[in-house]
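Late entry, evening session. Most of the bench is empty. Finally got around to the prediction I had been postponing all week. Sequence below, unchanged from the version circulated by S.P.
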Amino acid sequence: MHPGHTMLPMTQERDELDNLVRKRLRALRVAQGWSLEELAVRANVSQSTLSRIENGQRRLALDQLVTLARALDTSLDQLVESASDDVVTSPVIDGAHGLMRWPVKGDPGMTVVRQRMTEPPPDNLARMRAHPGREWLVVLSGTAILLLGQRRFRVETNQAAEFPTMLPHAIGAEGGPCEILGIFDRDARRSHQRDTAD
């Protein structure tokens, strides 16, 4: 053990996190296309030390993790966040409105909504919505129609559209059901939440 290193306490949970951190270190290094030697030089640690850190033969030291995180262009927080934070597997199903929605973990201001549509969009401006924000539309199956003011866009399966929501807009299906992902920024999300609460 190198003198002066602050050691992380080792519990079963810590062991699991240790293993996760080691895998992240190696994955980030490989993603950069760096050999052990290249990362060792960038982080100013010996190649043998780095090898032992990655393969679990050396305990993780906080000062080394800070240095390695910086060399790998990440942060200590991201390197050591718990495994439970990595995957979000429980979007909220809103049965009353036929929606599945969940916040985008990387940006709490964003929300994704999956929706099946069967009706065409309203054909008059009075029934379109306008509100602050920006939306993205991805068509998973079928064909969607996006109305923006006086303009009409066909968005086919595997196509996407991005638009400012201050323009009066409406979305519907053409020629049968379609399934879409709607992605809303913070302002657009607030407006849609008010709509579905009515």
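Two things to note before I forget:
The chain has two domains: 12-85, 92-197.
The longest strand covers residues 134-141.
Will write this up properly tomorrow.
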